[in-house]
């Protein structure tokens, strides 16, 4: 089965359940024609491959099909899956060295200032379309908020953030324009790094330039690539999915508006139901082994089926309650697990919470203007982002400061 047919389905959970019925917790899929992979859908199996670096490596130089030429050097998979000199492609001590600048960079973020900046971005975007009484909450809001917010942490302006965004959409699509998008994305960041070498400022780009664990421009560049690309795409999806649930699921909306579900609980329910990275590349088997009853050969590629693992019957709560269990349940795997667990969960939640809260406050009567079943998805084997979320609401004016009144 092509993996993109699951992420692009109107019912991905149903697709993963059928795969589980056929294969069990580890299923054979195709990443592109002729390129096989194992999709790990079991919650416990996913924890196994994320925690056992001695058996399942993040280093794509162990990918047998890539080494054997079965994957074309022009493949759209490579920007997401090929080895890079960054924290994602490393294990053990090397991984810990490259991770320290990210952890320290996240720790230095001023959360109060960032929240105010995100609020201002959200209010300005909503002011830009509020008079129309209609908007697309993906392309006019959810896609823009995280990029402008994250780009500002690295000292990039709004125009540079928009340019990065266009390149990233191509990169995550893993299609024919993926490699071109990746090249343009890196060119923008290299220019930023070299500008900060000439004129340092108080931003994350300068912090990476000065960090002793990053020894050359390539490592500094790839650290920026990881934080900006992973942060933007996943937060875009998180905002969009939370708003989509509010607009399409009456029970979810009633619990949220009625105060029975806090915004943070709503964010977690969205992560359980439709995590931003439905499928995350990748682990590479370092030896012949067994997983979920399947024989795994050395060099096989394993994809983290996060959406499927969140739906594993072994841990899935009673669906008759209409939710994912007790409020505050954060046992989902949306941020992965093990040494490579997402380092930026706190700022990601801050940006998402602020974006959702601002939309709820400034557009309280918004409603989806198309049938829920007509929502479609950007093509990607990895992420699940709506193409659009068209909404209607009562048109309102804007004050002189650009904020909605």
Automatic annotation (TrEMBL):
Q: Which InterPro entries match?
A: Cyt_P450_B, Cyt_P450_CS, Cyt_P450_sf
Say which domain of life the source belongs to.
Bacteria
* Record-linked PANTHER family: CYTOCHROME P450 YJIB-RELATED, P450, PUTATIVE (EUROFUNG)-RELATED
Natural source organism: Streptomyces corynorhini
Q: Which family does it belong to?
A: Belongs to the cytochrome P450 family.
For molecular function, the Gene Ontology terms on record are: heme binding; iron ion binding; monooxygenase activity; oxidoreductase activity, acting on paired donors, with incorporation or reduction of molecular oxygen
High-level lineage: Bacteria, Bacillati, Actinomycetota, Actinomycetes, Kitasatosporales
Record's protein name: Cytochrome P450
Q: Which residues, by range, are in coiled-coil regions?
A: none
Q: Which CDD domains match?
A: CYP_unk
